[in-house]
Design goal:
Number of strands: 12
Strand order of the largest sheet: 1-7-6-5-4-2-3
Number of domains: 2
Mean pLDDT: 95
Shape: globular
CATH class of the largest domain: Alpha Beta
CATH superfamily of the largest domain: Type I PLP-dependent aspartate aminotransferase-like (Major domain)
CATH topology of the largest domain: Aspartate Aminotransferase, domain 2
CATH architecture of the largest domain: 3-Layer(aba) Sandwich
Structural class: alpha/beta
Helix content: 25-40%
Largest sheet: 7 strands, mixed
Oligomer: single chain
Strand content: 5-15%
Length: about 425
């Protein structure tokens, strides 16, 4: 029986993650996409070669009508089938027009900064922020005459306006580069509020600053930043989307014209995702919904245990945001779940944190997050070691802070492991 005709109803994100972007007809009917290991692609004719290059570098609108350019690749640094599948799937999951894939999350973030910031401009970023992003904004870009200004209370209008004015005093505001939730404290940003302020700034300076939101901590199933006013959604695919701690990749989703600028810059930087990594990412996305639900369920139980423990001073789990607070209102409006990565503060400092970490038997002491295994680390001496102490403190990272990425193990075993560690404190 032939498939039913007519438009297909919109798919849920769970379904999009499983197969969007791949047509078995492109691979001899294979149910799963093959890994296309080729550095270069053969043209069907000299005319086809010209039109492929014309379409890639000048845009399809400038290529001759009727030319054989609909499905063609040139060289894997410019693009390849596995990368195109990942980009199509991430764009659909992020509810964007297009996406660009990179060989790491930092490659995505760095390319975004190079594409949309210029010397003499300023950028506002959230605080805390991942240490790689912190170094890029406050050290690397500073050498190119770009000023960075941080804001810690990103749900408070006065704080965002104050940081924006401080940035504007140094130069035109080119970009809001945000993480929501932030690494490692899981603090959130009111994206709609930032968009409103960005619109006002645009009216003043003649160009609205773009808004990028790093969505790594929640991923596309629990938050869609562009639905709340972001222009670009950044995801470290290494984390939850990859989900198995066995790949490095990143993506940026957004409007086609913005993504086109990133893809053009990627060609000269050479930081595209390679085929095997893209294939692994496609494989991993298929189980994203199942893994997300399990990890979130586990995290709720583990966070509840920690909140009730006398040796724990604070837990930043999003599910514990105070009802009626500005942050809770933003969370309820913006997020579909609390995620499974958060931080907690011990009563004590580095020595107490190290004693806990060295007693753990099930959890892995390692950086990164979003894998199937539970990972824990001490940010002040690992992920955020190269962030100056005053910036760490301003972002809520203390000597007793631990970041926990809850995985897929049985929650009772995870709680028992933490209890053993806390007994040593």
């Amino acid at each position: 029986m032939a498939p039913a005709e007519g438009p297909r109803p919109p798919l849920h994100a769970d379904s999009i993650a499983v197969g969007h972007g791949y047509d078995p007809a492109d691979a001899w009917g294979a149910a799963k996409p093959p890994i296309v290991l080729a550095s270069t692609y053969v043209y069907s004719s000299a005319r086809a070669a010209k039109e492929l290059h014309q379409a890639f570098f000048d845009g399809p609108a400038k290529a001759p009508a009727g030319g054989p350019i609909a499905r063609g690749f040139i060289y894997s640094r410019l693009g390849h089938p596995n990368l195109s599948m990942v980009e199509a799937r991430m764009a659909a999951l992020d509810r964007a027009e297009a996406a660009a894939g990179f060989n790491s999350g930092m490659a995505a973030i760095s390319t975004l900064a190079w594409a949309f910031l210029r010397p003499g401009q300023s950028v506002v970023h959230g605080r805390p922020i991942y240490s790689g992003s912190d170094n890029l904004l406050n050290t690397v870009l500073a050498d190119f005459g770009i000023h960075a200004e941080g804001v810690a209370e990103a749900c408070e209008e006065a704080a965002i306006r104050s940081a924006s004015e401080a940035a504007l005093a140094k130069g035109p505001l080119g970009l809001f580069m945000l993480e929501s939730p932030a690494n490692p404290t899981a603090s959130i940003t009111d994206i709609a509020l930032v968009r409103r302020i960005a619109d006002e700034i645009g009216a003043r300076q003649g160009r609205r600053p773009l808004i990028s939101v790093d969505n790594t901590f929640l991923g596309p199933l629990l938050q869609n930043p562009m639905e709340h006013g972001a222009d670009l959604c950044v995801t470290s695919l290494t984390k939850y989307c990859g989900g198995h701690s066995d790949l490095l990749a990143g993506s940026v989703s957004g409007a086609a014209d913005l993504i086109g600028r990133l893809q053009s810059l990627r060609v000269v930087l050479g930081n595209q995702m390679e085929p095997f990594t893209a294939w692994l990412t496609l494989r991993s996305l298929e189980s994203l919904a199942v893994r997300t639900r399990r990890a979130c369920s586990n995290a709720a139980e583990v966070a509840s245990f920690l909140r009730g423990h006398p040796k724990v001073e604070a837990v930043t789990y999003l599910g514990f945001l105070e009802p009626g607070s500005p942050a809770r209102a933003v969370y309820d409006r913006q997020c579909q779940g609390a995620g499974s990565t958060f931080s907690f503060d011990l009563r004590g400092g580095e020595a107490e944190a190290f004693r806990l970490l060295d007693q753990l038997q099930l959890m892995k002491l390692a950086v990164s997050l979003g894998g199937s295994e539970t990972l824990i680390c001490h940010p002040a001496t690992t992920t955020h070691y190269n962030v100056p102490p005053e910036r760490r403190a301003a972002g809520g990272i203390r000597d007793g802070t631990l970041r926990l990425s809850v995985g897929l193990e049985h929650p009772d075993d995870l709680i028992a492991d933490l209890a053993r560690g806390l007994d040593a404190v």
